[in-house]
Every structure is written in structure tokens, then in C-alpha cells.
Design a protein that fits this description.
The protein starts with a helix and ends with a helix. By secondary structure, the protein is α+β, with helices and mostly antiparallel strands. A hairpin with a 4-residue loop joins β4 and β5. α1 packs parallel to α21. It is built from 21 helices and ten strands. Helices cover 42% and strands 11% of the residues. The longest helix has 26 residues.
Length: 569
């Protein structure tokens, strides 16, 4: 009896060691948007200097001057000019995914000789396109340090617009100039305001505030474009710019989405939701500039939440800068904790389902076939089609690297908590068994054990097929270690449940797995789901689970992750 108890304790200890290693592995996933730390990096190396310099640089002074420049000289010691980095001045200029750092070389007359890209938190593909564009970097050679025109036109790199413009705007910030907006650099035209002012003939002012003038030279209105005020609030794929019609007393009378880097169909949904945007009219610029979206429970446009919230925040930030709207510091108090949580209708449904799940489990409701099948339909419709709140490798990897978005998605965070915290403690797997929409629909379409359409998988084949989910999980983790920007959403069929935006490939993938499940019961859950494999791996098994090959792989991944962190930081 004592021996059995001792073995049980060892098994439980081994289980919690597994769980602990999984937590450490999640913590070691690198951020896809690392912030460059260049303040202690010192001068650029010779290899980091632009390759089109007209000189042969032989020395770079190790100590920089007061303005952050390092002097450069040729082999005879003759001064050639200076070299600088754009960090940390450009640290808050975000491109597609993060900031970029440039190296700048100027001559003795403060003219820019050459510019190069040192590093970027943007995607590899975007960065490479910018690096290869000689025309993009050549346009800076006409600039003089500290004398940049705030409305200077910058030609972006096609296919990497945000990355290249962020690099250029970061350069201007490093130069100490006012950049205006390089992202929204196109001039405002009469056609942009004609639907509001049919008699408009010309515009005066700018770059943010414009007076509308008629044929007699009378001012007939005022509009504000948000681009020159705010262009760094990123939606699903990029920033957006509004045109705002102002009335007497700086009252917002109407809004128009002028330009956006977000994609369809999000933008169409945002434009069509007139009622949502109506709430922001008839407010003064000062009132709108002080609006707290979370405190006011503003949840965005359904189906385009990320895009619409970013567009709304752009509008608020722009009006704050336009009207110098600042809250009264003396009266400011910290809002209650719960005000920081954005709680949408879908979150209420998720919490309600979790409560219902607990009650059904407690009182044995799943013993009744009709009730269980009704539950499966509810999960498929509410969690899957309505909310799209499925756990996936992409979600777990992103949250591990960047933090859990529980304030923005409390319902999804609650489901994740139930899915990941209960299995290690009480041996259950509530997510895979009761909450996963893809699992629910597979349970619906499977045939009974006596059905002629049911295919039995040979035992030796079954053993090999069951290794696929663990193999996919291992490969995904190794890829994340060395390429944290990889998009894992295509590795699983769950993206199809966001059917409004899902691509045809995701939908076909999901349907194919369901088709297989009609002849091989729960085929994807058993032979293809790495997320389910992870949840089941940390589940506390009845026998404590003896050491297996998966445990050796886990230790190997831990060694690899620590080595990667040690070498690459």
C-alpha cells in the first residue's frame, strides 16, 4: 500500500513537471515584434553602413557627439562626415507590425549622403522588399539635416507601404523635423468635400484643418482630416484616416472614411454601419477627444471589431490633438477595475455557456442524448459561427508571446482558462469534449459503430496516425522559436469559423476534415489537431501517465528554447 502511494506521488510529481515545462516553453516563445534596443548598441559596424557611399570609410569614432552622431574618416584620417541611428527617436513609429531602425550618413554640410535599413520588427517579406528598393533610399539624398519640409512627399515602396513610410517618418523624427503624415500624404481635393459642400471651389489651410471656399471667396465650411494628427493607430492591417465636417463651436457634424489600409470586407462593414458612427456626431471636438471607449462600452462594429475600434480610436485621438482636449488632471481618478474590460454580447454568451456547462456536468445532464445533441448544436452556432471563439495554435502562440487579451476578449479568455487550467487539475478535458465547435460538429456527423459507412482504422495505422498532432505541435513550436512571425492560422481548420473573412482554402480545409469524420469518427480530433493534443498532454491522467517519447521531445524542446534564448536573447 505504501509502495503504491509512493508510486502515485511520483506520477503526480512527473505530471506537474510536464505542466511546468509546458508553461516555461510558452514563456520562451519570442515576441514577433521585438523592440530594438539600440541605445547601448554603439555605432553601426562597417557592414551596416549603406553600400552606396561615395567614400571608402576606414574608421568610425567609438564615441558619439552630443547629437548622437559618430564621426567617420578615410584611411588618411580625413573627416568624411557622420553616421547616426534613428533609434530611439523612431521607437514609436510603427509600420506593419513594429518599428524600424535606419542608419543615416551625412556629409560635413549636413546633407544626407545615404540611408540604409538596419533592423525592423515588420515581417521578413516587407523588410526585404524595402531593402531591395534603391529608388526608395535614393530620394533621401536631397534632404538636409534639420531642414526637412514637414509636407515633403515620400514615395513608398510598393508592396511594403507601411514599412517604408514608417522608416521615412522615423528618419524625420530623428532629424528633429515635423513629418506631418507620410502614410496619408495624398492632398485633399475638392471632390472629397463636394458631397457636403456642393458650391465648394477651393480649399485653404492644412495640413489638418481646411477651410472650404465657394466661388465668391466666402468660407462655407471647415473640415479636418485626421491623417496629419494621427496615423499610428493600427487596425486589422493598418491605420485609417477620417475626414470630419465641423460646425459652429467646433461641433462634429459628419464623418467620412477618407483612406484606410485595412482590407475588405471589414471596411465595407464599417462604412455600412451608419448608426454606429452617428453617435460621434453633435459632439464638440473637445468632448470627442476625451471619450473613453472602454468606459462608454463602445464595442465596435460586429464582424469588424478590430478595424472599427482602431478607426474610432483614431477619431478620438485626432480630436484630442485638434482641440487640445486634455482631461482635468485635478479631477481625474482611476476608474473602477471592471471599466477596463470591454464586455460584448458574445462574451456574455460565452460566460453563459460556461455556467450552463458546469450545471449540466454537475447534475448529469449529458446522460440524456437529446440534451447532449442540443448542446452540440448550441456550441457550434454560438461559439463557432456567432463568436468564432475557437482555441488554436495561432491564438495560443500569440498570447504566449504578447500577453493574454482578456480585457478585450473576456469570453474567449474564459474559455481558454477552462480549457487550459482544468485538465491539469481534475483529469477532464471540457474544451475538446464540450466546447470546441469543430469537435461538436464531428460528433454530430459521425455514424454508429454498426454503420456500413463507418471505416475501422487498423491498429498499427492508428498508432502512426495518432503521432501526427504531436508532430505538428513540435514543428510549430520550433518554427515559432526561430520565426515568430509565422502565421499558424492555416495549420488548423478553425479559421473557417470566421466565415465572413475566411479564405476559400480555410473553408475547404474545414469541410474536408468534416467529410473524413463521416466515415472515420472524430478523425481530425484523433489524427490531426495539435491544439487538442496540447490540452490532452497537460491533462492529469488517471494513472499519472508514465514517461513516454512525448516527454523526451518536451525536454528536447526546452533545451532548444533555452539555448535559443541564451544565444539570441
Amino acid at each position: 500500500m505504501n509502495q503504491a502511494a509512493s508510486n502515485g506521488k511520483r506520477m503526480i510529481g512527473a505530471h506537474w513537471i510536464r505542466v511546468g515545462i509546458v508553461v516555461v516553453l510558452a514563456w520562451l516563445i519570442p515576441s514577433p515584434h521585438p523592440m530594438p534596443t539600440t541605445e547601448q548598441a554603439g555605432p553601426p559596424t562597417f557592414e551596416q553602413l549603406p553600400g552606396d557611399l561615395p567614400w571608402e570609410v576606414a574608421t568610425i569614432e567609438p564615441q558619439h557627439g552630443a547629437a548622437g552622431f559618430w564621426a567617420i574618416a578615410d584611411s588618411d584620417g580625413r573627416a568624411l562626415g557622420y553616421v547616426a541611428r534613428t533609434m530611439p527617436d523612431a521607437q514609436d513609429v510603427v509600420g506593419y507590425r513594429g518599428p524600424s531602425e535606419a542608419v543615416v550618413v551625412i556629409d560635413a554640410q549636413r546633407r544626407i549622403v545615404s540611408v540604409g535599413l538596419l533592423d525592423s520588427a515588420d515581417t521578413v517579406e516587407h523588410v526585404q522588399v524595402v531593402r531591395n528598393s534603391d529608388e526608395f533610399f535614393a530620394q533621401f539624398q536631397s534632404w538636409t539635416w534639420g531642414e526637412i519640409d514637414r509636407r515633403k512627399k515620400v514615395d513608398a515602396v510598393s508592396g511594403a507601404t507601411l514599412t517604408s513610410l514608417a522608416l521615412a517618418q522615423g528618419l524625420i523624427q530623428r532629424m528633429g523635423g515635423e513629418a506631418g503624415s507620410l502614410v496619408f500624404a495624398d492632398p485633399l481635393g475638392i471632390d472629397d468635400v463636394r458631397d457636403w459642400f456642393p458650391d465648394a471651389r477651393r480649399l485653404t489651410g492644412g495640413p489638418a484643418t481646411w477651410d472650404v471656399i465657394d466661388a465668391d471667396g466666402n468660407q462655407i465650411g471647415t473640415v479636418v482630416r485626421t491623417g496629419p494628427l494621427v496615423d499610428d493607430v493600427i487596425g486589422y492591417q493598418g491605420p485609417s484616416e477620417w475626414l470630419v465636417r465641423m460646425g459652429d463651436g467646433d461641433v462634429v457634424k459628419d464623418l467620412k472614411l477618407l483612406t484606410t489600409f485595412d482590407n475588405e470586407p471589414y471596411v465595407d462593414w464599417v462604412r455600412q454601419e451608419k448608426y454606429y458612427w452617428k453617435r460621434f456626431t453633435d459632439m464638440t471636438a473637445s468632448q470627442l477627444g476625451q471619450l473613453d471607449l472602454e468606459a462608454e462600452s463602445i464595442e465596435g462594429v460586429s464582424g469588424a471589431t478590430m478595424s472599427s475600434i482602431a478607426m474610432t480610436q483614431t477619431l478620438v485621438d485626432a480630436m484630442a490633438r485638434y482641440g487640445d482636449a486634455e482631461p482635468d488632471v485635478a479631477e481625474a481618478t482611476d476608474p473602477p477595475f471592471w471599466h477596463s474590460i470591454r464586455f460584448a454580447n458574445s462574451d456574455a454568451w460565452m460566460i453563459g455557456l460556461l455556467v450552463a456547462l458546469g450545471l449540466l456536468h454537475q447534475f448529469g445532464g449529458f446522460r440524456y442524448r437529446s440534451l447532449r445533441r442540443t448542446w452540440l448544436i448550441a456550441v457550434f452556432v454560438i461559439v463557432g459561427l456567432y463568436a468564432g471563439n475557437l482555441l488554436s495554435l495561432a491564438l495560443l502562440a500569440g498570447w504566449s508571446a504578447e500577453g493574454i487579451a482578456w480585457r478585450l476578449a473576456p469570453g474567449l479568455a474564459a474559455i481558454a482558462a477552462v480549457a487550459l487550467l482544468l485538465p491539469p487539475v481534475n483529469k477532464s478535458n471540457p474544451y475538446c469534449n464540450h466546447l470546441c465547435p469543430h469537435g461538436a460538429i464531428q460528433q454530430w456527423v459521425r455514424h454508429g459503430s454498426k454503420s456500413r459507412r463507418r471505416v475501422s482504422v487498423r491498429r498499427d495505422v492508428d498508432i502512426w496516425l495518432r503521432r501526427i498532432p504531436g508532430g505538428l505541435l513540435t514543428i510549430a513550436y520550433v518554427v515559432l522559436l526561430f520565426r515568430p512571425t509565422v502565421d499558424l492560422s492555416g495549420w488548423e481548420p478553425f479559421h473557417a469559423y470566421l466565415f465572413r473573412i475566411a479564405g476559400l482554402g480555410s473553408i475547404v480545409f474545414a469541410l474536408a476534415t468534416l467529410a473524413v469524420a463521416t466515415v472515420i469518427p472524430m478523425a481530425y480530433c484523433r489524427y490531426g489537431c495539435p491544439t487538442g493534443y496540447l490540452i490532452d498532454y497537460v491533462r492529469r491522467a488517471g494513472d499519472g501517465r508514465k514517461l513516454a517519447v512525448a516527454d523526451l521531445v518536451l525536454v528536447g524542446l526546452l533545451v532548444l528554447a533555452i539555448a535559443r534564448h541564451w544565444v539570441m536573447g
